[in-house]
Amino acid sequence: MKRLEVLWLAFEKFALFFSFAVAFVMVMALLVVGLAVWRALPGLQALRAEVACPMIADINALVDDLNNAVITRTIHIEQTIPVNFDLELDQSLTVELTEGVLLNRPATFVLPGGGGQIRGSVTLVLPKGQDLPVHMQMTVPVDQYLPVEMDVPVSIPLQETDLGPITARLKSLLAPYMDLLGRTLKCPAPQP
Hints:
Helix 2 (about 40-70) packs antiparallel against helix 3 (about 165-185). A hairpin with a 4-residue loop joins strand 2 (about 100-110) and strand 3. It is rod-shaped, with a radius of gyration of 47 Å. The protein is of the alpha+beta class. The model has no long low-confidence stretch (mean pLDDT about 80). Among the domains are: about 1-40; about 40-85 and about 155-190, no CATH class. It has 3 helices and 4 strands; from the N terminus they run H-H-E-E-E-E-H. The strands form 2 sheets. The chain has a two-stranded antiparallel sheet with strand order 1-4. Strands 2-3 form a two-stranded antiparallel sheet.
């Protein structure tokens, strides 16, 4: 019984190898015959020249158009942004009083001819509308939230985005087909 099993396993291996060899030879023969028919038949030559060349050229042009495309949009921005900084002021300016200002200051009056001094106070009112020159030198802290609403035009060339390398790779994948079609079918070279 053992011997019969060994023979059966050997036959299975031979049958498997033989069927693989026959299938391989048949596929290769079909490829050779198909290629010969593809090159020999004038109808297929016309099909290649009228379909394959324009189709590959159109795909190549489409990849070029995609690579040169620019996304143009206007983006509406509406949000509140924090503004936090110190504003340094150092300038001279003239201000106008909006109401009368009462001044009451201590004063010393010196009498002429060595007559001595009188200590007292002076009271006066600066009138409304009076212009006063002032010098401002200070740091003003600014800590606010400002609402921002604007339309921002945006222009994004696709070749400068992550799609740039992808379209370049598509172009390089099409190059061998364009070269093959140009050599075998005398397809016109794509225009840059």
